[in-house]
Amino acid sequence: MSNLTTTTGSNTTVSSGGLPSRRNTELAMLVFAVLIPVFAYANVGLAINDKLPSGMLGYGFGMVLLAGVGHLVVRRYAPYADPLLLPLATLLNGLGLVLIWRLDQSERLHQRAENLFGSFTPDAPKQLLYSAIGLALFVAILLFLKDHRVLQRYTYISMAVGLVLLVLPVFFKPVNGARIWVSIGPINLQPGEFVKIIIAIFFAGYLMVKRDALALASRRFMGLYLPRGRDLGPILVIWGLSLMILVFETDLGTSLLFFGLFVIMLYVATERTSWIVFGLLLSAGGASLVATFEPHVQDRVQAWLHPFSQEVIQTTGSDQIAQALWAFGSGGVLGTGWGQGNSDLIGFAANSDFILATVGEEMGLTGMMAVLLLYGLIVERGVRTALAARDPFGKLLAVGLSGAFGLQVFVVAGGVMGLIPLTGMTMPFLASGGSSVIANWALVGILLRISDTARRPAPAPAPSPDAEMTQVVRP
């Protein structure tokens, strides 16, 4: 007797059911991402007016709508995307809306706005509108960007667009000493927020092609592999562009972000520590050079070195850093409680550049650490996405976007807390500002698309006709 066994030769890979999509996990975390800001909103109302806010239902419905639409789109068009990014962004955005609304209730800010502008306009409703626009862009990215590798085709186009956006503010009036805004009628845009995404696309495409040449070393000095002289060109060009931004626009934040982003991606692409050393030296040298003749940069350095000096306060015309440091000190470990702080004494930019001061005072050191941890988780998930990506362009782009996000958090938090000079940038998702929240929702959308492509199971190949006819005869 002999057994006749026919094999079908199905060389299957991981099936669609073999890897969980984690969408239900995302949904569960989104519930908390909505409930926490709604609870904070109720706390602010009770602290200020001894009653629940009249707009609590509308705010809660708006948060549920934003989170629900985002989740449904991700579930349908990016089912294998990272499950943490959307809840983290939603939670930060929701907390930012609460903080802005809390500052809108300040009588002192009302009085200052009326003295300066003749009337007071609350910022929370506008921020909710900007958040909806940002989520719409997030949805559009997931709908129309089917594969992130398509962006590689626009490497040099993105460079041209990025340079135009960087130069554009030069032709508009400065705001508070810095040329970072483009004002067309009622529309005010901060191009630097969008440039970080566009330039990351260019750097990813460029370094993917040039990384082998940039990784070559000519000699070793003090434990560092020094790059060849002709390979220093790219970093010197980017250094020069960042200095031009600092000189002509007096925009320290965008200059640091632009140059730092390139150094981070260059290090990841080449794995050469020497590029980090050169980057830090050039950054410190360039900033010191510009600070010797640019008054706006000098004022910010002096305000950083001597925040409580009355002479410096009179010279710069602002005691914002001193008030922010007092707010952090007043918060202690657990904070004064939602709606019970005095960070509105900061005045101008209390709900934008200095919104972390409100977090530090009313939520204390504990709340500050929690908020910074949320930002750290977004960066970590972005880096994890880069590690999981199967193509070099996706790896570099994910690292670039995560690095830009993390670098922006560092320069803003460092400036408000007195670690570095104030840069004038806004805290992602938390601070008031349409350009910031819209651009950061777009950044999260691209990261989700890359993570979906990285985690998506490879399709099973079609069965071979020859394999189906194979017969194995065993005695």
From TrEMBL:
<feature type="transmembrane region" description="Helical">
    <location>
        <begin position="85"/>
        <end position="103"/>
    </location>
</feature>
<dbReference type="GO" id="GO:0051301">
    <property type="term" value="P:cell division"/>
</dbReference>
<dbReference type="InterPro" id="IPR001182">
    <property type="entry name" value="FtsW/RodA"/>
</dbReference>
<feature type="transmembrane region" description="Helical">
    <location>
        <begin position="230"/>
        <end position="248"/>
    </location>
</feature>
<protein>
    <submittedName>
        <fullName>FtsW/RodA/SpoVE family cell cycle protein</fullName>
    </submittedName>
</protein>
<feature type="transmembrane region" description="Helical">
    <location>
        <begin position="354"/>
        <end position="375"/>
    </location>
</feature>
<keyword id="KW-0812">Transmembrane</keyword>
<keyword id="KW-0133">Cell shape</keyword>
<dbReference type="Pfam" id="PF01098">
    <property type="entry name" value="FTSW_RODA_SPOVE"/>
</dbReference>
<feature type="transmembrane region" description="Helical">
    <location>
        <begin position="27"/>
        <end position="48"/>
    </location>
</feature>
<feature type="transmembrane region" description="Helical">
    <location>
        <begin position="254"/>
        <end position="270"/>
    </location>
</feature>
<keyword id="KW-1133">Transmembrane helix</keyword>
<feature type="transmembrane region" description="Helical">
    <location>
        <begin position="275"/>
        <end position="293"/>
    </location>
</feature>
<dbReference type="GO" id="GO:0015648">
    <property type="term" value="F:lipid-linked peptidoglycan transporter activity"/>
</dbReference>
<feature type="transmembrane region" description="Helical">
    <location>
        <begin position="54"/>
        <end position="73"/>
    </location>
</feature>
<keyword id="KW-0472">Membrane</keyword>
<feature type="compositionally biased region" description="Low complexity">
    <location>
        <begin position="1"/>
        <end position="19"/>
    </location>
</feature>
<feature type="transmembrane region" description="Helical">
    <location>
        <begin position="426"/>
        <end position="448"/>
    </location>
</feature>
<dbReference type="GO" id="GO:0032153">
    <property type="term" value="C:cell division site"/>
</dbReference>
<feature type="transmembrane region" description="Helical">
    <location>
        <begin position="154"/>
        <end position="172"/>
    </location>
</feature>
<feature type="transmembrane region" description="Helical">
    <location>
        <begin position="396"/>
        <end position="420"/>
    </location>
</feature>
<feature type="transmembrane region" description="Helical">
    <location>
        <begin position="128"/>
        <end position="145"/>
    </location>
</feature>
<dbReference type="GO" id="GO:0005886">
    <property type="term" value="C:plasma membrane"/>
</dbReference>
<feature type="region of interest" description="Disordered">
    <location>
        <begin position="455"/>
        <end position="475"/>
    </location>
</feature>
<dbReference type="GO" id="GO:0008360">
    <property type="term" value="P:regulation of cell shape"/>
</dbReference>
<feature type="region of interest" description="Disordered">
    <location>
        <begin position="1"/>
        <end position="21"/>
    </location>
</feature>
<feature type="transmembrane region" description="Helical">
    <location>
        <begin position="192"/>
        <end position="209"/>
    </location>
</feature>
